[in-house]
Amino acid sequence: MNVFDEQVPVNKKRKISKPVKQVESDEEEEDQYGAGESDSDVDGVDVSDNDSEDSEEDEETVDDKKLRLAQEYIARLNAEKEEQEHPDAYLIANRLEEDRLRKVGRLFQKVSDQIKSKNLEALDIKTHKAHQLPPTCLAVSSDDRFAVTGSKDGTIIKWDLNTNTRVYTIHSLHKQRKNKTHNKKKRKTEVDEKKSHSGGVLAVAISENRKYLVSGGMDKKIIVWDFEAGTHLSTFTGHKGVVSGVVFASPSNTLYSCSFDRTLKIWSIDEMTYVDTLFGHQNEVCALDLLSGPRERCVTVGQDKALRVWKVAEEKQLLFTGPASSIDSVAALTSDIFLSADQTGGVCLWNIGKKKPVAVVPDAHKGGVMDWATSVAALNNTDLAASGGSDGNISLWECKPGDMKCVGKIKVDGFINALQFSPSGKKLIAAVGQEPRLGRW
Predict the structure, then answer these.
(1) Distance (Å, rounded) from C-alpha 357 to C-alpha 403?
(2) Beta bridge partners of 249
């Protein structure tokens, strides 16, 4: 596990935004614990009295049932025999089926049992210290090799996880001004304010093709960088408040961003242009993530104590009732399941078909300075998740369709401001500081 700590002493093509239809449930008459909008479209079929007569004629007899069960048993034996004779073909078939389920966001692998058998106290934890102020966010590249961290000091650092070394540092505007040079005529070199952050960085994201790095921060700017070299490519200034989250839609280079201005914005990074703005939150939006699967659906959380799932193509949003406090972090597990962390110290498991959480651990990180659950992460398409808080513990969770339980804890001193699993699941990266991401202590 890698831990990042602080070092102690465009042209915008504007599209007219459309109001997004808010949907709380499929049926108005359902109670408050009923299911929300369904993901699938089901056509209703009217069954008449004549159908009941046909069903009586088609009813399976005892002899027919015995015959059917015998045929199924023989088919199963033949399949097992064929699998033993041609194991490679079945391995390929299983891999293709796994890839298909992953693409549609329906793959759910059980990996939490591997955590139960590990001695977490003997983990090899590597710590990297470079930021002058607490790190607030991080992102891991799709090849597991690189990580990027952002900090309250306005810097962005790219790390090589294989060699545990720093690749480059993108300095803040303040640092660039401090280090600017003078030419022979002693004319001061001007610093372009659009090409760096003038405040703390609260969000970073890496595109799946590892071409772009995007950052957002307290200066209300979204900056696009070349991921390989760390050079400036473009700056977006559409948000009117602090940019608190950015995420790429895979495999496209569509970017989603959320802000304290209560909006969710969509950008095309390939064209370096603005696409749309979505409204719905009644207070500051604190974090976002993308649900896996072929359809682009974004989930956001904020200080209005609500979670919203945005069905962008359908121009709809689903509203979920959260806990009685600000929700600071969210992470998608599958296309239907996601987790949240809030300022009461609780961690919640959600299903897109339910308006209320299907599982709640109310005091997951109680006992710290502020009893906050500050971050949450999920290993996509598995049953494994992680959460961090002000208590200095990283809790690992086994997630089931209607339940979650802790399978281990890793002790880390400080506020765990961000967590992320590497895509392979072999590494868990944490950004740890002496104060929370969205405040000072």
Answers:
(1) 10
(2) 254
What does the block give as tokens for 52?
Answer: 């009941």
d(Cα 378, Cα 108) in Å, to the nearest integer?
12
- Tell me the mean pLDDT in the region 352-377: 88
**pLDDT value of residue 26:** 39
Q: What value does the mean pLDDT take over residues 373-390?
A: 93
Q: How many CB atoms are located within 10 Å of the residue 177 CB?
A: 16
Among the listed residues 432, 386, 426, the one whose alpha carbon sits nearest the alpha carbon of residue 145? 426
Query: 326 or 61: which carries more pLDDT confidence?
Result: 326
Cα–Cα distance measured from residue 210 to residue 227, given in angstroms and rounded to the nearest whole number = 6
For residues 255 and 215, give the distance between their C-alpha atoms in angstroms, rounded to a whole number: 11
Determine the residue type at 339: L
Q: What is the pLDDT of residues 331-349, one digit of tens each?
A: 999 888 999 999 988 999 9
Which residues pair with residue 340 across a beta bridge?
330, 348
Residue 137 tokens read as 């966010």
Start-to-end CA distance of the chain, whole Å, equals 26
Name the token pair of 261: 């201005």
Quote the CA–CA distance of 380 and 423 in Å, as a whole number: 8
**For residue 97, what are the β-bridge partners?**
none
Q: Could you give the CA distance from residue 293 to residue 283 in angstroms, rounded to a whole number? A: 28
- The rounded radius of gyration (Å) of the Cα atoms in the chain is 25
